[in-house]
Amino acid sequence: MIKNIFKSIQAYTQSFGLISKLKLWKYFFIPIVISIFTALIIGFLAYTLSDNIGYYIAKIWRWEWGKQTFMTISSFIGGLSIAVLGLILYKHIIMALSAPFMSPVSEKIEAHLSGVPLSQIHHHRDTTFSNQLWRGIRINVRNLGKELLFTIPILLLSFIPVINIFTTVLLFLIQAYYAGFGNMDYTLERHFKYNESLIFVKQNKGLALGNGIVFMLFLMIPVIGVILVLPFSVTAASIGTVARINENSQISNNKTKL
Description:
Helices cover about 85% and strands about 0% of the residues. About 40% of the residues are buried. It contains ten helices and no strands. Keywords: Amino-acid biosynthesis, Cell inner membrane, Cell membrane, Membrane, Sulfate transport, Transmembrane, Transmembrane helix, Transport.
């Protein structure tokens, strides 16, 4: 898995050159607008709600001794909870709504890397705008549920001093995995049905995690992060996913010949 993580991260080094070479920037205009608009809404909600959540958490502690310490911890947990939940919602919203715009990008990248004509790749799994949107929504709603299932217990553990250092790292990795999952599916939807795609990602967790780690790091860059995160992460995911699909195909062909 470690090898796949580094392969997936390395794919980002090819992203800018490939986007420019294939003239893909125009496909990212609407997804970038979606990304900025979603980030602004979630950022505003996080700013207005974080103090309130910290205040209500602090009310649990009814004793005077240690109250200030608990209030400090509560404010931290409130802010962390809003930030984590905000990031979860942000990435699933933009990946779901951007699916119909990202699929053509993935197609062009696959055609370039494999040398197969674009028309042939498109025919491989011919889907409409609405099909791609529904697939994106379905995948991301499923991933959102899974992510919340893991995230909420970990957030509760964040109340425990020292342990919250490890829970922060764990939360980052969980978010990264599901971000990479969503980016990979723009390619997988042409090759696999829904359940087959789930199996593929489970078998290639490193690719999803590596892609998602850089995705999450992009979001830490003010302003520029929400603008560039989709172009670079989707391109990198397409590069890595196409390579793995081709590798699996070659292995299957060799086994057939034997």
